Amino acid sequence: MTVAPRNPRARPFTRVIARAARLLARGIYRSVEVDNSEPGWSHGPAILTANHPTGFSDPALLLGLLESSPRFLAKSTLWKTPGLGWFLDRIGAIPIYRAEDGSTAKNAEMFKAAFDALDDGATIVLFPEGGANDAPALAPIKTGAARLALGARGEGVRGINIVPVGIHYERKSGIRTRAYVRIGDVFDLDAELDDLEIAPKADAENHDAVRRLTAEIETRLRHSAPDFADDEEESLLAFASEVALREPGRFRVSYADREQVAAGLAHSPAQARVRVVAAGDEYSTALGKVGLSDGDFMMTQTPPGLGSRLALLTLILVMLAPLVLAGVLLNLLPGIALFGAANYRHREMTPATVRLFSAIALFLITWLVWAALAWAQWDWRMGLVVFVACPLYGAVAVGVLDRIADLLEMWLGLRRAGKVGEAVAVLPGPRRSLVVAVEGALQS
């Protein structure tokens, strides 16, 4: 699930936190898919520019994926939060002094620290939108990434790659949702400056060069991150993408595949999108009339052998029942609390951020309590065993419960389709029209 090779110079504390972030991601998200088609960027200095759809969940997710000890650029006001400043210092974060937060006089120190890190071959991560953005489209990005890249090059750093990173969440609230990280078209600063008509000696003080490079960074990031006109378009194109990807007997579609197709549709010609939306409305209306989803309908097109595979999966799940029960009992209270926290709304904190901190605090405290009780009842060795068993059994329980939910969803879908009977005969026509419209849009 990582997108960069391990860096032997990485800080030990950062490596520990990265491993913890990966464990958290496996617990919070049903899956985290990564598309890294150009892995060569990770072998030298790199500037990662990522969209920022949530609060602290975005850097936590990236920290778990990047094993190269990344240096995050973060707003300076975060250092004023008790404990958080110490943590940011430990992972090597670099403060940014924004005008809206007060004086920007110390930004010269920020650039110097970032230049030194790039010269040492580090990966710098920043969120160029300037803050968390809950909209379905990327906000216009700031010039910081371009100024950092050109400034470092002006100081003699060579081999810098600017890497667009799109972070996608199936749902920003709730638990056991899916996440997808897409590494986009990498910009090789040394090799591609000429393509933008930027002089080789241009630095951060060259405003025209900064403007051109910023526009290029934004274009590439828009093709990696979610970038829809509005929530309605995002929902419609996601539905059309799932329909086009879903195969007979397949209830769930890969989230990464869905997001890739939806992004292709969002950047297709306007007339092609209109045809997709019209065909999607027609098929959605037909589904609504018979009371089915597309997943329900496609389960009626069951390929041979699916029944036996489901029976085998059911048997395996039954055999794992004792471990599942233990995992549920050990993690029940923090699980219930996390479910409520994941849907919490606050003006300054996104649900994903609340979910992240709740997972860290609630589960760790619960495991420590169970370990302390075991130590008091037996000895410290048993306490250690219980502390290790809590997350392990919890992981087994979560995985099995996910599979049970899938089986239940499939069974209910087949049951709904069975009740409809021959009425499903009206669905293949509009469904095929939607698939053709999607294929045509992607090829246009």
Question: What do these coordinates show?
Answer:
This protein is of the alpha/beta class and 444 residues long. It has three domains: 12-222, Glycerol-3-phosphate (1)-acyltransferase (3-Layer(aba) Sandwich), CATH 3.40.1130.10; 231-302; 306-422, no CATH class. Helix content is 56%, strand content 10%. The chain has 16 helices and eight strands. The protein has helices spanning 12-28, 57-65, 84-90, 107-119, 144-154, 189-192, 207-222, 231-245, 255-266, 270-290, 294-299, 306-319, 321-341, 351-377, 380-420, 428-443, and strands spanning 29-36, 46-50, 71-75, 94-96, 123-126, 161-169, 177-183, 187-188. Strands 1, 2, 3, 4, 5, 6, 7 and 8 form an eight-stranded mixed sheet that branches. A hairpin with a 7-residue loop joins β6 (161-169) and β7 (177-183). α8 (231-245) crosses α10 (270-290) and α10 packs antiparallel against α16 (428-443). It is flat and about 70 Å long. Residues 5-10 have low confidence and may be disordered.
